[in-house]
Amino acid sequence: MGLTARALAWADAASDAAGRVAAVLVVVLVALVFALVLARYGAGIGSVAAQEAVLWLHSALFLLGLCFALRHDAHVRVDVFSQRWSPRRRAWVEFGASLCLLLPFCVFIVAVSWDYVAASWSLREGSRDPGGLPGWYLLKALIPVSALLLALQGLAGTVRAWARATAPTADA
Q1: 57: phi > 0 → left, psi -120 to 50 → alpha, else beta; which?
Q2: Among 36, 94, 111, 135, which residue's CB has the most CB atoms within a 10 Å radius?
Q3: Whole-angstrom Cα distance, residue 89 to residue 156?
């Protein structure tokens, strides 16, 4: 296995691992929301920490699921035009879109969030609400991490799109 194939496999494995974590978070999120509804309406008990945990799980689920969705081509795509295109043309469009839109977007997210996350870490930021969860800086750290994972998977997709676009056969 060549260096490129190993790098692509590593990017795919990282995205799949993030997806497995997101899948577990879905189950935990559903169970927690169910328990919160039972506690609130069944027993009249509420918990700020549990409500914040729902927010944490929901945020982490989406942030970690981004690269997984891209890896498995489950992201939103406008197929109105591309359904009529040849596989080669679709590959060129995917290559260009990744290079000109996705990767700069990921760099932008990392650049914009870096100081925000660093400030949160320096303060060891916790909840503003009494009884809330500590360690909000950990959740905020997922913002640049998810952008980096998305960029990694985006690079893998860009390499694959290039290979399909420049393949010698017309059915790339």
Answers
A1: alpha
A2: 94
A3: 18
Cβ neighbours of residue 100 under 8 Å, at least 6 residues apart? none
What are the CA-CA distances from residue 87 to residues 26, 69, 161 (Å)? 34, 21, 10
Fill in the amino acid letter for 150: L
The tokens for 159 are 């390499």
For 30-66, the pLDDT digits (tens) are: 999 999 999 999 998 988 999 999 999 999 999 999 9
Q: How far apart are CA 73 and CA 75, in angstroms?
A: 6
Residue type, 158: T
Find out whether 3 and 24 touch, Cβ atoms under 8 Å.
no
